[in-house]
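User: New here, any thoughts?
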Amino acid sequence: MSYRDLKARVASAERRLDRHLTGVQDEKQAIAHTLKQTFTPVRLLVAGLAGGAVVGWLRPLSHIGSLSSLARTAAGFPPMFVALMPWLKTVQAVLDTPGPDAGKASQKPQD
């Protein structure tokens, strides 16, 4: 077999391999897309079952009595924030005022 024949066979094999790899990549993308679409409902079902199991295990309705103390604690936050507002405004004003060397920071030294 001559050198040209071998070279032609190699080129033909490379083209076949290229077509095969392109086809495999297309099939892989199609399978990934299909699996993603298929598993979305499965993920929802699994998440629902897991959430139901956790809620059943924790039995939150038996702890309903402790919600009143939690609600009282949460109701105490807005007055606390209202009481802190003057202090927070003072802190913000102090942070917003420029220091004595505020103009010097933007100046670059001359070489």
Remarks:
- The chain has a mean pLDDT of 83.
- Helices lie at 3-58, 67-75, 77-96.
